[in-house]
Amino acid sequence: MGYIFLARHGETTSNESDINAGLLDDPLNKKGRKEIAYLAKALSKTKITAVYSSPVFRAVETAKILARPHHLAVKTLEDLTEAKFKAKFVGKKGRKHILTSPEAFDETYQELQERVVRGFNSIQKGSGNSIAVSHGDPIAALLNYVIERDIAGKNYYVLHPDPGSLSIIEAGDTPKLVLFNFHRRLFDNY
After folding, report:
1. β-pairing, 74-76 with 50-53?
2. What phi and psi, each to the nearest 5 degrees, are found at residue 60?
3. What is the pTM of this model?
4. Residue 184 gets which letter from DSSP?
5. What pLDDT band is residue 156 in, cutting at 50, 70 and 90?
6. Per the CB 3.0–4.6 Å rule, which of 20, 32, 38, 129 could disulfide with 11?
């Protein structure tokens, strides 16, 4: 059994400008590279056996930074891809999330969650610790699955990771959320 270190890609200009990037090749901005460099340093002493990423550019860029200290190649995993926006919303201002704006997506929340859980299960089959890099809605769907956030028969949008944040899931028959939304700024006020 190992741990899966779940990271959201670093901040991009689209994140900063409240734009729906979807599958656009949106690179990390300066702040995003700094956030991920911090996570890479924090994880550098942890034994990591594999690094997985959504195939979307900003996630791959993030995964490469996180993989560097471990001298590992990044494996892309389609199931970690961003929630599938309808084309008319991509590149437009006004961030959309799959539970609060389902009309903006070509997949349902249930389809997104099933896809991301399938990816998580394939990562769990490996041995040792892994890093997986994805996007806000897919990470929220996976974390909701892991902690069973079904309240009175309804799913509530209660989790959403910050850009450049890290979440950790203990893999196994009953996955457990170990850490949620860890990032450099957590310690700024202490």
Report:
1. parallel
2. -65, -45
3. 0.82
4. G
5. low
6. 32
- Sequence spans of domains, the chain: 3-187
In tens, the pLDDT along 106-145 reads 999 999 999 999 999 999 998 899 999 999 999 989 988 8
Cα separation, 2 vs 40, in Å, equals: 18
pLDDT in tens, 23-43: 888 999 999 999 999 999 989
Length of the chain measured in residues: 190
Amino acid identity at 92: K
Question: Any idea which residue has 């929630």 for tokens?
Answer: 83
Q: Which CATH number is associated with domain 3-187?
A: 3.40.50.1240
Q: Kindly state the tokens that stand for 129.
A: 């610790």
Instruction: Please give the backbone phi and psi of residue 19, each rounded to the nearest 5 degrees, phi first.
Output: -110, 140
Element (H, E) at 168: strand 166-170
**Three-class DSSP labels, 65-110:** HHHHHHCCCEEECHHHCCCCECHHHCCCECCCCCCCCHHHECCCHH
Neighbours of 4 (CB within 10 A): 23
In 3-state terms, what secondary structure has residue 46?
coil
Tokens encoding 169: 């899931």
